[in-house]
Amino acid sequence: MYSYDEVEASTITHRASAEYKAFRVAVGEKRLLEQPSDLRFWRPTNIGFLTRKVHMNSFKNQSHGKNYIVIDELTPASGEYKHIFELLSKISLKAEKTQEVLSFWVLQREDGDKTAFLVFTSYVERDYWALFNAQTEIQDHWATLYDLSKDWSRTTWMGPGLGFLGR
Q1: What Gene3D superfamilies does the record point to (predicted)?
Q2: Confidence of residue 167 (pLDDT cuts 50, 70, 90)
């Protein structure tokens, strides 16, 4: 059994294991991945927050477990890393003041190569995501973020999914 307390344990030790090699062969033979996986680690920046203590009773229409989660991945165009960082900071400040935003957490690649940001956000429910992002200032920031990115993607889901945030 391996310990994954350090990045090297996953990037070197784990990938050298017989189990990982067998997994990669099976994935390749069955063509489960359209492109090679990217197993580099994401590390938190100093932008945002992961969890917020919320009393769900204050949200009358909330059905338990209907949280709306959004993951945005942004790859800055050349020279735009700092500008994207600043815009994400501005959105985060607004999110911190909005109780319905349960998480707004910005990560970057472990190696610090400044090639991508991952923005993890969660909301009480989808309607609150829509309300927060309908604010003109927030819309403008996201539009600029997309313009400054050479590539971006968004993934969303509802409900608790796998795992949990907070206890």
Answers
A1: 3.30.70.100
A2: very low
Dmax over Cα atoms in the chain, in whole Å?
Answer: 52
Nearby residues of 114 by Cβ (< 8 Å), 6 or more positions away? 76, 81, 108
Domain ranges of the chain: 1-39, 40-158
Residue 76: what are its φ and ψ, rounded to 5°?
A: -60, 140
Output the CA torsion sign for 143, 145, 146, 148. positive
**What is the fold of 40-158?**
Alpha-Beta Plaits (3.30.70)
Residue identified by tokens 């917020």 is: 52
Distance CA 84, CA 68 (A): 24
Tens-place pLDDT, residues 77-128: 999 999 999 999 999 999 999 999 999 999 998 666 667 999 999 998 999 9
Q: For residues 39 and 136, which has the higher predicted lDDT (pLDDT)?
A: 136
Neighbour order of strands in the sheet with 68-76: 42-49, 101-109, 117-123, 68-76, 149-158
- DSSP bridge partners of 70: 121, 156
